[in-house]
Design brief:
Layout (H helix, E strand, L loop, with lengths): L2 H19 L6 H41 L4 H7 L1
């Protein structure tokens, strides 16, 4: 894919974004406010997922291992 095709494809994706969200009818300053709010919300979701999902997965793993009788590696290391 050469540069012109990539540029046209990105322009098409941006056009689809404008159509799907309906912001093509907004004025430029309204578009920038909408885009900054949307970007901020997406950034917060990504950051929160990066920080808190591993903690919740570890806690769920410990919970289910406790229910089904499995022992964690840290418990095994302390016993030996």
């Amino acid at each position: 894919m050469n540069f012109k095709n990539l540029r046209e494809y990105l322009a098409w994706l941006y056009y689809q974004y404008l159509l799907i969200t309906g912001i093509y009818v907004l004025e430029p300053w309204e578009k920038s406010i909408f885009n900054s709010i949307l970007f901020s919300a997406i950034a917060m979701v990504v950051y929160t997922s990066y920080v808190f999902v591993p903690i919740h997965v570890r806690l769920a793993l410990e919970f289910f291992l406790g229910i089904f009788g499995g022992q964690l590696e840290s418990t095994m290391a302390l016993m030996t």
